[in-house]
Amino acid sequence: MDSVLLVDRRDGWTVLTLNRPDRLNSFNEELHLALRAALDEAAADESCRAVLLTGAGRGFCAGQDLSARAGLTEAPDLGATIETFYNPLVRRIRALKKPVICAVNGVAAGAGANLAFACDIVLAAKSAKFIQAFSKIGLVPDSGGTFFLPRLVGDARARALMLLAEPVSATQAAEWGMVWKAIEDADLMAEAEKLAAHLATQPTYGLALTKQALNESAGNTLDTQLDLERDLQRQAGRSPDYAEGTKAFMEKRTPNFTGRAT
Hints:
Layout: E1 5-9, E2 14-18, H1 29-44, E3 51-55, E4 59-61, H2 78-95, E5 100-104, E6 107-109, H3 111-118, E7 121-125, E8 129-131, H4 145-153, H5 155-164, E9 168-169, H6 170-176, E10 181-183, H7 188-199, H8 204-217, H9 222-237, H10 240-250
Parallel strand pairs: 2-3, 3-5, 4-6, 5-7, 6-8, 7-10
Antiparallel strand pairs: 1-2, 8-9
Helix pairs in contact: 1-2, 4-5, 8-9
């Protein structure tokens, strides 16, 4: 039986591929647990300095596998599902102290779309579509959707997309700032892998501090954020990568970053 998640460890980075293509890589408990374990392993592995997330087959992720709830005689506690599986997943990705690239290879619907938005850099195949599908079945956008989408595209667009559940093409998503780039389908993975390989050679500790600053900025006042930048810059300035970066700059050579804090 094929694994629901494919883990491919490369030189300094890891590819995680959602692998339920017959269900458009929709989430069941097994996939949740496999992805959680893989992200925890990547977090603990100092040799892994970037993560690339994508999907197998013609879709990235269709969100929750609704067939898993077929035949229930009572209304499920969807809040418990979110608290147990989706919220921890989003928090893991945002808190991961290394870049997470998402290559959206096809439809990204519901929690699948919001999972992509939780990543640091999103590339989308031009055939991909993003759909806030929740209103079609009487639900509320979750997995951080009501947090990420208004910040990416603005309140007016986010409201319309969530209330109307209209699909957004990859090209439109790139124009609106929903994703970083829309890529020709045939070039998507090569571009995403090139980006992951590049990030795996960069100052990982400094990138992690940058992620922290961006994560906290949404709830901070300007004064609080200025203080945070000061404190994080102090930490970054004591790292070996800062010393190496400045030395390489002065010597007009490519820096050899280790990605470590000390």
